[in-house]
Amino acid sequence: MLPDHAAFIIAAFAGSALVIGALIGWILLDGRAVRRSLDAMEARGVRRRSDRTERGS
Amino acid sequence: MGLMDLANPTRFLALSGRLLPWLAGLTALTLALAFVLAIRAPADYQQGETVKIMYIHVPFAWLAMMGYTLLALSALGILVWRHPLADVAHKALAPIGAVFAFLCLFTGSLWGRPMWGTYWVWDARLTSMLVLLLLYLGLLALRSAIEDPNQAGRAAAVLSLVGFVNVPIVKFSVDWWNTLHQPASVFRMGGSTIDPSLLWPLIASAVGFTLLMLTLHMMAMRTEILRRRLRSLEARAAAEAAFA
């Protein structure tokens, strides 16, 4: 049986999960888009002078 | 390795690249444990099961304030030491802090309705937390309104230092004014007033969400460093094309 005020508890947890999920998704997609643009730039032969293996994994 | 070594964007990328998978895994584990502890925690003798909202609302409030404190420290790094990584940290943290401030208000109003009979009152705690959210949104708006990134960074740093005065107001508002919001019950003189059966799940949840903020901040900082490299490459490519 659901406790009193269950709707408020569920809305708080579900709403928070949704917003945090959206934040994680936005950060991941933004990172992917920037990496893709950098890769495209490097494919065109434009590189940093000091670039070796420093873009990290 | 000293702090100044780490404060080099290239070294930061390498180190954070190795650290991130472990940090993300630890975050997921801690949040899962906190969720189980929160579900199994006993009901409060007055609030019943509604007290479960505390396990997310309180960490969100702490992190909104901690996030703004870190913004103010980064602002010092921008204005005093003019360190590029301080600006990266500042820019990457603002949207994350804004989300935690929003979630604090959102979960607080859903907790307030069944307990106080209202979603919102203009008391000092709620109003100062709303001001904190508006400060975060102001920082985001300011950065996007100024085209020159260096100028935008300095303006945002000044605003975050000025706005930092609101953080102690949020914290002590319940002591300085008569508020509907309850006074502090965890970090207070004389120790916590919360029963350990409710306190431990709260601590687990706070640790989990702190790790989440750290993980997301690190990811956003990596992206911001790469975005700046992309911008300089685009400028170089445009200059080379102009002289070709």
What does this structure look like?
The complex is a heterodimer of chains A (57) and B (244). Chain A is mainly alpha-helical and 57 residues long. Chain A has one helix spanning 6-43. The longest helix of chain B has 48 residues, at 196-243. Chain B starts with a helix and ends with a helix. Chains A and B meet through helix 1 of A and helix 2, helix 3, helix 4 and helix 8 of B.
Layout of SSEs?
The complex is a heterodimer of chains A (57) and B (244).
Chain A: H1 6-43
Chain B: H1 3-6, H2 9-40, H3 54-79, H4 84-116, H5 124-145, H6 149-163, H7 166-176, H8 196-243
Helix pairs in contact in B: 2-8, 3-4, 3-5, 3-6, 3-8, 4-5, 4-8, 5-6, 5-7
Family (chain B): Belongs to the CcmC/CycZ/HelC family.
Domain Cytochrome c assembly protein (chain B): 5-181
Transmembrane segments (chain B): 20-40, 60-81, 93-112, 124-143, 155-178, 198-221
Gap between N and C termini of chain B: 44 Å
Please count the helical segments of chain B: 8
Helix coverage percent of chain A: 55-70%
| Greatest chain-chain contact | A-B, 32 and 42 residues
Task: Provide the structure class of chain A.
Answer: mainly alpha
Organism (chain A): Ancylobacter crimeensis
Function (chain A): Required for the export of heme to the periplasm for the biogenesis of c-type cytochromes.
Membrane topology (chain A): Single-pass membrane protein
Subcellular location (chain A): Cell inner membrane
Tags for this entry?
heterodimer, A: rod-shaped, B: globular
Short description:
Chain A has 57 residues and is mainly α.
